[in-house]
């Protein structure tokens, strides 16, 4: 099973690993696109006003541009420690046992605008690049990633659970992947799309999928696994699941 997570705009600072080695990342066939994007970001960082415009940043966020300028020399962290925010707080990898962390490292991967895909344990520096960014002189990120990343994801043998947000899923869709939407249900039975706590619920779901000893092979088996864990999951056909949670 492969569980695809969205990245976060916020990143933990610093690190204790050697500088970025693109060839050491998962899916080495993505190295040419990764190299092009890293070099483009580093070059762009030399023109701060242009970098602000391309990345949608304000002057108060110039530290993000400085991070990009140091991509080749900055220390690295494993991806699951680099990304921060609501989803990763709920995933809480720091509390996993050694065996659970081993399963998480094998099963979890993060969609990235800069790296395409990073394994849970892949060491990366802090950076700033979003799926909707447009870098000067380059095609759209979707145009760059879809022909390179699409075959990598399509070639995975096993169940793929795609928890990426829409803009990251669009970089390289995965045919046949299970997707999960989250709805809240009020006491009167009415439902609404979860917005604020969506990432929290997906982080908890990712934690469950990362640590279970089960190995679901299809959407039906996945639904049964989630229901045994006490989750209210609906399946109306196809590969889409709906996680129904009580209204906050």
UniProtKB/TrEMBL annotation:
Recorded superkingdom: Bacteria
GO biological process assignments: response to hydroperoxide
GO CC annotation terms, alphabetical: cytosol
A Pfam cross-reference name: H2O2_YaaD
InterPro entries to which the protein is assigned, alphabetical: YaaA (IPR005583)
Protein name, entry field: Peroxide stress protein YaaA
